[in-house]
Each structure stands twice: as C-alpha cells, then as structure tokens.
Amino acid sequence: MFPMTTTTPDSNTLTNDGLPPQGDGRVLLIACGALAREILDLKARNGWDHLDLTCLPAILHNHPERITDAVREAVAKHRAAYAEIFVVYADCGTGGLLEAACAEMGVEMIAGPHCYAFFDGVQAFAERDEFTSFFLTDFLVRQFEAFVWKPLGLDRHPDLRDMYFGHYEALVYLAQTDDPALTTRAQEQAARLGLRFERRLTGYGDLAETLQGWASRG
Amino acid sequence: MSDEEDDIILSELNDDELVEQMWDDLYDGLKEEIEEGTNILLERGWQPYDVLTKSLVAGMTIVGKDFRDGILFVPEVLLAANAMKAGMAILKPLLAETGAPRMGKMVIGTVKGDIHDIGKNLVSMMMEGAGFEVVDLGINNPVENYLEAVAKEEADILGMSALLTTTMPYMKVVIDAMVEQGIRDDYIVLVGGAPLNEEFGKAIGADAYCRDAAVAVETAKEFIARKHNQLAAG
Q1: pTM of the predicted protein model
Q2: Does ipTM come in above 0.90?
Q3: Domain boundaries, chain B
Q4: Which residues on B lie below 8 Å from A93 (Cβ)?
Q5: For the stretch A122-133, what's the b/e string if a residue is b when 16 or more beta carbons lie within 10 angstroms of its beta carbon?
Q6: pLDDT at position B209 over 80
Q7: Could you tell me the fold of the domain covering B5-98?
Q8: In chain A, ranges of CATH 3.40.50 domains
C-alpha cells in the first residue's frame, strides 16, 4: 500500500537509541522510534521539508512509566531550536500522564490510547473493542523478539506463555505496508503465542491525517 | 541465586538453613524444591502458618523488593510466584485446620474490558499469604459482579485491577455504583495496575492506590487495623 520511499535507521537502533534530529526544519516532531519509518515516509512523500524528526527509543513502549519524563526532557531540550513541537505519541499506557504533561507544556500529541488505535483509526479501534486481541504493527513484527519474546522471558521460560497470553484469543497484525514477508513472520509469531492470526491492512491510519494537519500549520 | 542447588540436600539442613535455602529457591523459582522444603518443615513439626510466613511469604517479600528495585523482572517474579503457589497448595488445607489468624476477606477482580491478571494474581497470592481470605473474580468483571460478590461474601475489602488506560476509568463506575447504593463506606476499596497512580486512586474515590502486591498487603492490613480500632472506639 505504502512502499517505502526513504531510508531509515535499522529497527534495533530505533528500539534502543531512537533517532536524533537532523537540525533542519522549523517544526520538530518528537516521536516514538516505532513510528520513525512511517513518519519519514510521509515526510518524503509529502515534501514536508519544514518538519524535522527526533525519536525516543521505541523500547519505552515496554516501560510506559518512563515515557512522560522522556518526552518532557525532549521537549525541554529542543524547544529553543524550533518554532513548534508536536509529540507523536498516543497515551501509550501512561494513564493520562503524558496528555497532562503535553497540555502543561503547550504541545499537541496524538489522540488515542496507542499506536494500534491510530493506525486502525481511533474511532474504529474503540468500536471494535477487541480486548482479547494482542496487537502488532510492522515495527513490532520486526522487533518481536526485543519487545515481546525476550522481555517476557519466553526465550528462557516458554512455559510462562499461557500466564501472559492465556486470556487472549487472537494476534491481530495491523499492517502499515503490504509486505508478505512481514505477514509470514506475524503469522509465525501468532503460532508461537498460541493465538489465532488475523491481519488488517491499515496503512498509516489517523497518523497520516494528524501529521498532515500539523504540517499544514507549521 | 546459587549454582550449587544440585549439591544441597534440603533434608540435611537445619531449620534456619533450610528456611534461608527456601528463600533462595523461591528467588530462583524452583517449584519442586519449595514443595520439598515445605514438606520437610511440616514433618519437623512446624505450624503451617509459620511455614507460610517465615519461609514462603518472607522469601516472596525479598522477590517483591528486588522487583521494585529493578533487580528482578516480571518473568522471574512469575516463576517465584509459581513456586510459592506450589508451597501454598500444600499449606492451604492445613491452615484451615490449624486455625491460622484471619485478617479479613477480600474480593478482587480485573475490571470489565480487561483480561490482564498477572498483577491481580500476585496480589491475591500475597494477600492469602498474609492471612486474608481472597475471593478472586477473575478478569473482565462488570460492576454487578463486584457488587454481588462483596455482599455475598461479606467482604471487608474490594480490590480492582486494570492494565489499560482505556479500562481503568471503569473502576470509577464501580465506586459510583457503590455510592449510589449507599454501600461505599462498608468496604475498603483498593485499586492497582500499571497505568494507575495515587492521584487517580483519589480522584475516583478509592481508599488507596497500591503500586504492587507488597504495598497492597501493607495497605490492607493498615485499613483493617483502622477499621477494628474504629469499631472498638464506637
């Protein structure tokens, strides 16, 4: 659906280190590393040269209690160098703390509970109410070992699987790109977790629309 | 913790050594060793309640502290919990027979729309270890499940858990329903779960937010003691 048009750092770098800003553009997007590919693709595709991007390490996804402070620090660090800053995070498990922090700092963020929701479309995601589904995106399929398998200790203790996933029914792969290789991997990952597999080609969902809005204002 | 487990014969250790070894085994999630240690202490005439508190609960408290300090992570805690559960399965019927102290009764469950129960299960286990009777409603509980259970079980405490930002507001639905029915003050309401915080607990009208299982136990004990004091004073 959306062939990649830009080169991005490899997934491991985005997971652990994030991405520094390029230093050009008057508007800065502070994003989760898990969104770097999609944002850079939209930026190239739309010619948003006035937007710069920096990413925090995507692995913060597994430590939502650290996200709010990390975003606060990034905003404080870059504020003076840009005319405007936008935060490309949803709530991401911060329990509303990120939203409160962004409001306090006067910066906008993405609506919705998670990237799953805005890729799927926040409203559609809420209406589906799939609370027995475990979601993966392109990035999370690529980084399944680093985000799911190893941190849950399943590489060392596969017998713990049902304690984590026993109440889930399906693994839903929300695909940003139509990539058969990623689909195969996601299918295998569903099997490893003992879950029914479902794939939904979402493209960039609400992310594209939100960035479009921000880009046109910046 | 130690690489020498294979060389240690539990039955040859004296009581103090065995208890310390059980702490290590619990830390390492060694279920069979915990079962063996539990049985040895019972055979030596230990009261089930002492086995529970001095070996299992004390050992799990170390695990809890190291989890809080970022030394241990969720998988290790789960393995330790499984080991403790195995020991408790031996002790549970004996505890009922031997009249172990009863702290109070808790109804606990994960809220509607949420299927996550790892934290809740740890709280249930540690509350049982601390002498509370626990009625676990499982996952995905609508308001009526909670209200029926607290009434039927004549519970002292209602515990609610949520892992999602989208489901945690449901706790307020439950508390509001309790207020509406005029029963809110009949129960101690404790809430927990990763995205929650103290402010949220206050805002929804809970008695306390508990950041982990150990805090839940301490908070529950504190509130129960307060309740007893109030009754005594009244």
Answers
A1: 0.90
A2: no
A3: 5-98, 104-233
A4: 164-165, 194-195
A5: beebeeeeebeb
A6: yes
A7: 1.10.1240
A8: 11-113+205-217
Q: Cβ separation of B79 and A96 shorter than 8 Å?
A: no
- Put simply, the answer to whether A95 touches B78 (Cβ < 8 Å) is no
pLDDT tens track for A136-172: 999 999 999 999 999 999 999 999 999 999 999 999 9
Q: Give the three-state DSSP class for A55.
A: strand
Q: Which of A64, A94, A156 sits opposite B75 (nearest CB)?
A: A156
In tens, the pLDDT along B115-174 reads 999 999 999 999 998 889 999 999 999 999 999 999 999 999 999 999 999 999 999 999
Residue B102 predicted with pLDDT over 60:
yes
Q: Which residues of chain A does B139 touch, with a Cβ-Cβ cutoff of 8 Å?
A: 167
Q: Which residue of A has its CA nearest to B198?
A: A95
The reported pLDDT for the residue numbered B234 is 63
Helix (H, G, I), strand (E, B) or coil at A19: strand
Q: Which residues of chain A have pLDDT under 50?
A: 1-5
Question: Which residues have a Cβ under 8 Å from the Cβ of A35 and sit 6 or more positions away?
Answer: A55, A88, A115, A139, A207
The class that CATH gives domain A11-113+205-217 is alpha beta
CATH of B104-233, picked from 3.40.220.10, 3.40.50.280, 3.30.1330.40, 3.50.50.60, is: 3.40.50.280
Residues 98-117 of B with CB under 8 A from A: 113-117
Q: How distant is the Cα of B75 from the closest Cα of chain A, in angstroms?
A: 5
Report the candidate in B31, B28, B38, B37 with the shortest Cα–Cα distance to residue B4: B28
Give ∠ CA B153-B209-B163 in degrees, rounded to 5.
85
Enumerate residues 4 to 63 of chain A having a beta carbon within 8 A of any beta carbon in chain B. none
| CA atoms of B97 and A103, how far apart (whole Å) | 57
Would you state the pLDDT for residue A3?
42
